[in-house]
Structures are given as structure tokens and as C-alpha cells.
Amino acid sequence: MSVEIDWSVIFSFLPELAAGAKTTLYITVVGLIGGMFLGVVAGLMRAYGGRFLNAVAFVYIEVIRGTPIVVQVMFLYFALPVLADIRIDPLSAAILAIIVNAGAYIAEIVRGALLSISKGLTEAGLAMGLPYWKVLLYITGPLAFRRLIPPLGNQFIVSLKDTSLFIVIGVGELARTGQEIMASNFRAVEIWTAVAVIYLLMTGTLTLLLRIIEKRMRIL
Questions:
Q1: By three-state DSSP, how is residue 88 classified?
Q2: What region, left, alpha or beta, does residue 170 occupy, with left being phi > 0 and alpha being psi -120 to 50 degrees?
Q3: pTM above 0.85, yes or no
Q4: CA dist list (Å): 41 to 93, 118, 147
Q5: What is d(CA 73, CA 101) in angstroms, rounded to the nearest whole number?
Q6: CA trace torsion 144, 147, 149, 151 (10° rounding)
Q7: Residues 144-149: contacts with CB under 8 Å, at least 24 apart
Q8: Which of 43, 50, 164, 204 could pair with 111 in a Cys bridge, judged by C-beta atoms 3.0 to 4.6 Å apart?
Q9: Is the pLDDT of residue 28 over 90?
Q10: Residue 100 and residue 63: Cα distance in Å, rounded?
């Protein structure tokens, strides 16, 4: 028995889908801001830290990269209250999961970009009498930043799509909103198509912005 597809039903649920997309973007943006900070710190520890700092960053990166983000968010939401008596709401758990997860991947991107810069530039800056932090800030850092833009952009897109996994803890992001709407009217084709299109619009816009930035900062 075939079911008649009615695309017009999508328009009646656009406000709910838009609210879910807004939550998705909020989790992504806030999470990536924190992830960038954490990733830069861990990346610097891996590239320039001593044996102890390098080891700490290495363990953090390998643990996070070796476990799925859905396990990480469920640990934060369900296990953390038991282990440390710290209870956080689903939205906060989702944001924290993005921070921790993206931070590990960004750390390796930062480390690779920093180590790809010729040591001769660092030595030249030090020979000019600049302190190490100024060499990093004004010479090595800007060059490394340009090189990390493409892989960093890929991580941004992955993190945005990873928010759909937070459906497991009931966060009202786009995928969860689509599921709730579909459960009420059983219009699976129409609703999930709309959800997919909204994800494509968000990732496509982000890709376009990153390509513009990459083009403007390209090293000739």
C-alpha cells in the first residue's frame, strides 16, 4: 500500500524545524569556541610542551579520538553525576561534549600546522632578539593559522553534524525536533527530507564561508 506524499506539510512545521536548527547552531558555535581554545592549548602542549605536558595532551587526545562522541555525551550526562555528583542539563552536556571532542581533533590540527613551519623561521626570529613567544605570535603562528584553515573547516562541519547524535539525551536540536514531528504525523519522507535540506543549507553555508576565508588567506 503506497502512501501519498504531501510536501506542503513541511511548511506548517517550519517554525519548529527552524527552532531545532537554531539550537543546533547554538550548540555548534558555543562548543567550537570552547573547542578552539582547548585545541590550541593542547596543540601547543603537543608541539612545544615538555615531556609531562606533551604526555598529558597526548593522553587526552587519544582517549577522545578513540571513543565515539555519543559515548562521551552519555558519559557526561549519565555517568558524571554518579562518579562526581555533578549533574548537568542535556544542553550543557551537548555543548561540553562538542568542546571536549572537537578540542582533541583541533589539537592535532594545530600541532601539525605548527610543526609544518620551517624551523629556520623560528631560528631567524630568535636570532633577531625576539623572545620565543613573540616568534610564535608574529612569525610562526600566522603562517600556521593559514595552513590549518582547510582541516579546521572540515572539523567545524563534522562537529555541526555530530550534534544530531545528541538525540540520545533528549536535546531539542534539529534531528530531535524532526523525530518528534514525525512521531506525531508519521510523515517520515517529508519531515526527514526537510531535516536533510536544512542540514545541507547549514553545512553548505559554512563551507562557502570557509572557502572565502581560505581564498583570502592562501599562501602563494
A1: coil
A2: left
A3: yes
A4: 22, 21, 18
A5: 9
A6: -110
A7: 144/110, 144/113, 144/114, 144/116, 144/117, 145/113, 145/217, 146/217, 146/218, 146/219, 147/113, 147/116, 147/117, 147/219, 148/109, 148/110, 148/112, 148/113, 149/210, 149/213, 149/214, 149/217
A8: 43
A9: yes
A10: 11
Q: What pLDDT was estimated at residue 116?
A: 84
Environment class of 168 (CB within 10 Å of its CB; exposed 0-12, middle 13-18, buried 19+): middle
173: helix, strand or coil: coil
Per-residue burial over 102-139, b if 16 or more Cβ lie within 10 Å, else e, is bbbbbbbbbbbbbeebeeeebeebeeeebeeeebbeeb
pLDDT of residue 2 exceeding 60, the answer is no
Backbone dihedral region of 129: left (phi > 0), alpha (psi from -120 to 50 degrees) or beta?
A: left
The three three-digit cell numbers of residue 9, written as one number: 506539510
